[in-house]
Structure prediction request, 359 residues.
Amino acid sequence: GEGDVETLVAQRVESLRNPAGKSFEDRTPDGRVYRIRRRRASGGGTVTVMTDITEQKKAEQNLLEAKRQTEEANARVTEQNMILEGLAAKLSKYLSPQIYQSIFSGNQAVEISAKRKKLTIFFSDIAGFTEITDNLESEELTDVLNHYLTEMSAIALQYGATIDKYVGDAMLLFFGDPESRGVKEDAKACVTMAIAMQRRMRELEHEWRQRGLQQPFRIRIGITTGFCTVGNFGSRDRMDYTIIGNEVNLAARLQSAAEPGGILLSHETNALVQDIVLTEEYPPMTVKGFLRPIKTYKLLGTYKELVDEGKVVLQEREGLRVLVDLTKQVSSEAIAVLEEVLAELKKRNAQARPDEPRS
Prediction:
């Protein structure tokens, strides 16, 4: 057979020395493989059994080769997956998470298409941004702006907003597509998000000053609710997922009319959220594309926050809701109204319980 001579001799000697016998493999010059088992016979001499295991060995080699090829293929697949995951992670930076998820889950086709849908649109801008950052170098300006957008985007994603685009220091967001909790809940989420953003801006004032700003950023926010066209716009080779329509222009106009650090709502948005926030009617505005002047409302805060701050009194029971704005002087007329309501309630209570003694 083939192989190391000393090894072959040692195997044969051992097979003769061991009474129980021993098996070993031998390969012939023509490539055949035999398993040889030798043991001593009871009457003396040896018994040798040779089994041709050439096909078995070929099968084993084929299995080993297949395993090697499979491992190499798996390694290539793993490497490709890592590359794709890296590319996907980079791509996700250019898409709002909801859009990214809907595309990669197959729920949304990447094609030119659009639909009409009722959305709540948010538009924000930093008041006097150019003047505030005029003394900053371009690198410092980039750092400050990116920090601001990062902070606001984190809040937007926390509340489920779809980030449409950044335009310099301005942000366009919307609620209601590709995911919606219903028109009313979308509006509430948008308004509470806007309040959270303004709160965060106040918290960052000290940091802005440390970054070289002579005065802290103040953002103006406009929010409206209405029908827009939403979808993929562009060419077959390059498209954007965005919204268009008069409501987008209205949100921008509301933002420009808001006070620095303030939030201005359209009439429809105000109607959807009036059970959670207190607002104050502002002068109507004329907006291109709308036949009538638009009623606007300044957002004062959530009822919970205003109650905690001692700015309003709010009492609610079944069939009863009393709200008093303590930031305004409570007039004698308002007191008279409350006394009139109280007298009417006492009267009705007495009529409902005629047998009880009157106080």
Observations:
- The chain has a mean pLDDT of 83.
- The chain is about 45% helix and 30% strand.
